[in-house]
Amino acid sequence: MRQSLRGIWVIAYRELLRFSRERSRLASTLGMPIIFMVVFSEGLKRQIGALAVGVDFVKFMYPGIIAMSVFINAIFSGLSVVWDREIGFLKEVLVSPLNRSGVVLGKALGASVIALFQALVMLALAPLFGVPLSLRIVLELIPIVIVLAFSLAGFGLLIGSRMRSQQGFQVLVQMVVFPLTFLAGVFFPVNNVPRWMEIVSKLNPLTYGVDAIRRIFLVGEISAASRNSGHSIIGVTVFGHTTTTIEDVALVGLLGAALLIGAIFSFNRHT
Amino acid sequence: MNHEQKTPSVSETVISTAGLARNFGHTQAVKGISFSVAEGEVFGFLGPNGAGKTTTISMLCTLLAPSAGEATVAGFDIRSKRTEVRRSIGLVFQDPTLDEYLTAIQNLRFHAYAYGVPKRVRDERIHELLNLMELWDRRNSSVREFSGGMKRRLEIARGLLHHPRILFLDEPTLGLDPQTRHRIWKYVLDLRRRESLTIFLTTHYMDEAENCDRIAIIDEGEIVALDRPELLKNSLGGDVVTIRVENGEGAVAELFARYELSASIEGDGVCFKLPGAEEFLPGLMRSFSCEILGVTIRRPTLDDVFLSLTGHSIRDDRPATGQQLRRYLNTPGMKSQLN
Ligand SMILES: Nc1ncnc2c1ncn2[C@@H]1O[C@H](COP(=O)(O)OP(=O)(O)O)[C@@H](O)[C@H]1O
Ligand SMILES: [Mg+2]
Predict the structure, then answer these.
(1) A17 touches chain B (CB under 8 A)
(2) Quick one: which H or E segment has residue B223?
(3) What is the second-level CATH architecture of the domain B237-299?
(4) pLDDT band at residue A39 using 50, 70 and 90 as cut-offs
(5) Nearest CA of chain B to the CA of A81: how many Å?
(6) Which chain B residues are Cβ-neighbours of A88 within 8 angstroms?
(7) Which one of the ligands is nearest to B25 CA?
């Protein structure tokens, strides 16, 4: 048990040390969501305008971008395993007395801290995009980001435990993770899209993650009246039931826990 | 120094294997090897590329499960007591395993944390090892900026950080230039004196294997010989002497008649083997009936041992630099430039 705990913090410590020493990674982590935010919001603001009473496109997209960057950062914990395998460092870890589950959870923790850091940076920039902030938003965002990050890290690590090359992992991210992210309602509400896309989106667990974060920001802005009329821009409506924040988070969290356990097993078997 | 400590029968066995084997699909990388290593020994595994050296080390270090056989390392079974084995050993892999984005000292700290080295020991030990490996001045440089030899030295320091009982070195000098190889060996032999450490290393350099207390010669997954280097070389029947004489056949007959040496004619020389050739030759030269025009003595090398045991040479993949240069100079373009 003590061995596990030490493993978690040692591995997480190195993830963060790495992150802080790689300027390019730091820059792209912080830069990418801001670029997305500026380009999309400026580019589409006039075309789209208000999506609901009091909610313009920028306010709608902003939480989506936070969710997206949390996903990407967390999934990259898997890339970090592949990278360690390529440079040989993974052997140094595997031959040490640290146990495998500690290593997996440590990678997930490291990625989650980085994801949270990024979410907080985005949060600090909220006034720039005209998004109002409150203490309630900050306090709700932190635990939800942590749950989502751990869950997605589970997914990334499950893949990373089997992959041998970084290129392979990058291809997977481009072919699977990016499409799933775009279909998760980052840029548009999933309750009002063509039928096929709606089905795909509602089967996509990321959709619930995006919704959980979006609800934090928009729940106060949308009156009960507009929520009930036709297609809501928050909540995911499945079989007539519109999910709540708790349901969103529970769904992603449970799936994530299963993925993390899977990652630990896979890591034990394949190394 | 206490003499009793030096006799192998008294010292404790720290590695022992019985029928240890590993297959990869249909390839039998290691075919059931048995040996034991005593505490404080420098034990070498000598063999060509693909002989199964790395596979053996990986099994002993618990990174690879054996297909068959048993082994204990530091008294712990490599299958059932993996964590205990890992705690008792230090390992320097054949390929680098440093995090090049971190500094030397950050790599060492990570290792100390991972092995739970207590804080009060940690910084002192890091200082001591970096000094020993002559890297203290570069402790805050990124490993990326290190040369191959510096990286290897850092890895050796890291492997020793947690005071292991056994240090495994997989081809510690592979790809390094001769000076650096020499230095690495100096550290290894120094270390053995300073810490009561057992060193298990692999190499495919003959000259390096000579530094080991005992070596196992391994070829195609099997140990073909295991002994002290001098004894292995002596087993070939001594030094190879070639004398040049006018009458070869007469010399062969005389050598047999007077000394019972079975000599043979090779080229324009007469060849025979005997131990201690230096002492023998002066007497021979004084009293030999035909005039001796020239003498060469060649001590058998481990390569000769390997050749006689396996029928092939261990040095297969390294063309001599002289040859390379000559080939280069013989290319037509080069010649005209030189003229
Ligand atoms: N992971 C592996 N998968 C398949 N074959 C392997 C693997 N590792 C080693 N081998 C094979 O096992 C044999 C021994 O390899 P190795 O132990 O690396 O030799 P050495 O270290 O003595 O050069 C070689 O034929 C090699 O191709
Ligand atoms: Mg090898």
Answers:
(1) yes
(2) strand B222-227
(3) 2-Layer Sandwich (3.30)
(4) confident
(5) 13
(6) 93, 95-98
(7) 1
Distance from CA of A163 to the nearest CA of B (A): 18
A178 contacts chain B (CB < 8 A): no
Domain boundaries, chain A: 2-270
Q: What is the rounded CA–CA span in Å between residue A231 and residue B176?
A: 69
**pLDDT tens-digit series, residues B151-177:** 999 999 999 999 999 999 999 888 788
- Whether the pLDDT of residue A271 is over 60: the answer is yes
Can you tell me the ipTM of this complex?
Answer: 0.87
Cite the DSSP H helix spans in A22-56.
23-48
Residues contacting residue B85 through CB under 8 Å, at least 6 positions apart: B61, B62, B73, B74, B76, B77, B78
Q: Can you tell me whether residue B234 is helix, strand or coil?
A: helix
Residues 6+ apart with CB under 8 A from B212: B42, B43, B44, B201, B229
Residues on chain B bordering chain A, Cβ-to-Cβ distance under 8 angstroms: 61-63, 83, 86-87, 89, 91, 93, 95-102, 106, 110-111, 113-116, 158
For the segment(s) B13-233+310-329, the CATH number from 3.80.10.10, 3.40.1190.20, 3.50.50.60, 3.40.50.300 is 3.40.50.300
Per-residue pLDDT of A97-107, as tens digits, reads 998 899 999 99
Q: What is the pLDDT of residues A218-232, one digit of tens each?
A: 877 765 445 555 556
Residue with tokens 């009329």: A229
pTM of the predicted protein model: 0.84
Q: What is the DSSP letter of A175?
A: I
The CATH 3.30.70 domain(s) of chain B lie at 237-299
B-chain CB neighbours of A10 within 8 Å are 110, 113-114
- The torsion defined by the Cα of B114, B116, B118 and B124, in degrees rounded to 10, comes to -40
- Interatomic CA distance for residues A17 and A10, integer angstroms: 10
Nearest to A96 among B101, B106, B114 (CB): B114
The CATH 3.40.50.300 portion of chain B extends over: 13-233+310-329
Read out DSSP for B51-114? Answer: SSHHHHHHHHTTSS--SEEEEEETTEETTT-HHHHHHHEEEE-SS----TTSBHHHHHHHHHHH
Question: Of the candidates A89, A95, A98, which has its C-beta nearest B98's C-beta?
Answer: A89
Q: Which residue has the tokens 């080390």?
A: B57
Once rounded to an integer, what is the mean pLDDT over residues B174-200?
Answer: 84
To test the contact with chain A by mutation, choose from B110, B119, B167 the residue with the greatest count of A C-beta atoms within 10 A, namely: B110
Q: How far is B117 from chain A (nearest CA, A)?
A: 12
* Cβ neighbours, 10 Å, residue B316: 9
